[in-house]
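DM from R.C. (forwarded with permission)

"hey, sorry to bug you on a friday — could you get me a structure for this? deadline for the figure draft is monday and I only need the backbone to look sensible"
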Amino acid sequence: MGAVSDDQQAGPARGAVRDRRRELGAFLRSRRARLRPADVGLPEWGVRRVPGLRREEVAQLANVGLTWYTWLEQGRQINASTQVLGAVARTLLLDPAEREHLFRLADVPDAAGATGADGGCEQVTADVQQILDALVPLPASVLNERFDLLAWNAAYEVLWPSVVGREPCERNVLWLNFMHAECCHPYVNRDEQLSTLVA
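My reply, with the result:
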């Protein structure tokens, strides 16, 4: 019986990678299709040719390039960082199990098993939390580039109980400011603040 060449051994492995990337694309398309624009704070204008969000909307909300996101859905051979995949997961409103599945399909093992009590959301180190706590009575918080609230001190919690009281992956200050009831909004100059935040 002849020996198996390296190319023959690599064939099944390459096929498995292609299958996983196709599955990743199908998974992303299915999660995009189940969302309505209103689910992510977008206006619903006119009739849509396809159900759910458009690729452009997902890319914009996740702050990633449209071409990159399109290639991800098409199953092309691209490298995705944990930060970018996390942004896509938040945009598609994935639950912890779906988020873990996304990371596994994208072959990003460092993040695939990282979901815990916080649902895989970003966290700050204990040193950062100590700094925030030392700033009391001044309210202080840490936000990431997407305005997700990562940490806060007691004074901040008194000012923003509606934000702090949300589930960890729902503490997006920008989104919550748009979704807050107009009657009870904490900003006196809401329109000015919201336009500044969006800009």
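R.C.: lifesaver. The chain has eleven helices and two strands.
me: no worries. The two ends are 68 Å apart (CA to CA).
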